[in-house]
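Listing S7. Sequence submitted for prediction.
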Amino acid sequence: MTPPPAPRRPGADALDRIGHPSPGPDPADASPHAFPDGGTWRTEIPSVEGPEALAVILKESARLDVPVHRVSQGSGVWMLTDAEITDMVDSCASRDVELCLFTGPRGTWDIGAGTRTDSGGAGLRARGHDALAGCVEDALRATALGVRCLLVADEGVLWTLHRLRTAGALPADTTFKLSALTGPVNPASYAVYERLGADSLNVPSDLTLDHLTEIRRVSGAPMDMYVEAPDDLGGYVRMYEVAELIRRGAPLYLKFGLSRSPGIYPYGAQLRDTALATARERVRRGRLALDLLARHGADGGMSPLGARLPGELRRFPVPEGD
């Protein structure tokens, strides 16, 4: 069987005609890891804050032929009614799309003043027992309504939810996704979050390609990365790097955020027009990124639609009695 041709480097053929060399990929940089289905990349549309925004995402993804493996929400389980969650669960199930909802209270929204200082204080972490318990309550409520992926922004919450999953208090097929606002920035921290129970980990969008290779030398846990980041995460647009992001960071979720747009967390009807317009444009940005992959011959390796599980991951042992 003839192997597929190597992906084309952007502009390489034209540059070669005028004697301008293009660097070739170093095989040593490539990630040795993949999803359990053999795929190297999946897609995610973030900031899908309710049933109405989800309907826009599903309609636009069908119209533009953008495959969607996962949609995620940022405002939190507590900002949705049971009926809204059930609606989203059913809509995602009808299209074989994974739904991921954010857990509970976080420091940026409570009365702590530290998050409003220049240092940012403890950021999104759950402050005190009650905030931790609120995240647990959100996890129990969401999974009871059929949600099987939860977004987490605190290492203590992550470890607690992993222990509950291990103990059977949460469904065994529940997965935990680490928030981009907590994302690890070095190989050691990435490996620690994997061992605390994370099933996919957002990394900041300003990590270099070399940083991704360094992480992949110590962990095969799925990575989530904004191809285009919202402004509060830097506003980076890395579409031309998508093929290399996959090659170096696989298994990788390509997240299609949106720069130059206002924040919508916590979402409410007062932000409806913005939420729906940005939802529509996120799908279009996904189409642009996937078109780039296709033009460069690098669009192979996508996981089958409906694939969601991360494969075998390494965990810290859970103490007996927990």
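Caption to Listing S7: primary sequence and predicted structure tokens for the chain studied. The two ends are 51 Å apart (CA to CA). The first helix runs from residue 12 to 17.
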